[in-house]
Design goal:
Elements (H helix, E strand, L loop, with lengths): L6 H4 L5 E9 L5 E7 L9 E4 L8 H24 L3 H5 L16 H8 L12 E7 L7 E6 L4 E5 H7 L1 H9 L6
Antiparallel strand pairs: 1-2, 2-3, 4-5, 5-6
Subunit structure: Component of the NuA4 histone acetyltransferase complex.
Protein name: Chromo domain-containing protein
Main location: nucleus
């Protein structure tokens, strides 16, 4: 029989190694993807609300946002170095404004700005809601991402972006009898 004090060994305090990503949910709460010290596998990373990181993670949160700002500055600088389309084509510069720079009401910004992540989705938190299609050739998969964003993708896209998740989803409907 275990002593009552033995349970406290399992309740050890974890130290934050780094912050990998973040998102804001529908209620405006900020969540951070935390990599814990001594836990190198991405499977052991967790999504933590900002309130859980207020004591030890404050400095890491600040460093994380500073690194994001530096990346954005580098992107802006490289974009400035590229010639604008009007200069490259010899235009007068009097054209339609770029659609990206249009003013959008603040309530709609989050919905318009969100896009699925680039690269592999294998380690991204989302739920496959179901599938359907217009014809036998096009099977569409419906996804709800962490944060409540809903997207629809062709099955072949998901087979490339997250083959293991697609396999686990499809295994639910296969029976070996």
């Amino acid at each position: 029989m275990a002593k009552p004090d033995d349970n406290h060994e399992n309740d050890s305090i974890y130290s934050v190694d780094s912050i990998q990503d973040h998102f804001v949910d529908e209620d405006g709460c900020v969540y951070f993807q935390v990599k814990w010290q001594g836990h190198e596998s991405w499977k052991e990373w967790t999504w933590e609300p900002q309130t859980n990181l207020e004591v030890e993670g404050d400095m890491l949160v600040k460093e994380y946002f500073e690194s994001l700002a530096k990346r954005r500055k580098r992107v802006r600088k490289s974009a400035k170095k590229q010639p604008s389309p009007s200069v490259a084509t010899g235009g007068t510069g009097r054209g339609r404004r770029n659609e990206r720079h249009r003013t959008v009401p603040s309530g709609r910004i989050a919905k318009l700005a969100w896009e699925p992540p680039q690269g592999s989705w294998e380690h991204e938190p989302f739920h496959i809601d179901g599938c359907g299609g217009d014809s036998a050739e096009t099977l569409m998969i419906y996804i709800t991402w962490l944060g409540g964003h809903k997207t629809r993708h062709k099955m072949d896209v998901l087979c490339k972006k997250c083959p293991q998740k697609m396999l686990r989803y499809l295994e639910q409907y296969v029976s070996m009898s």
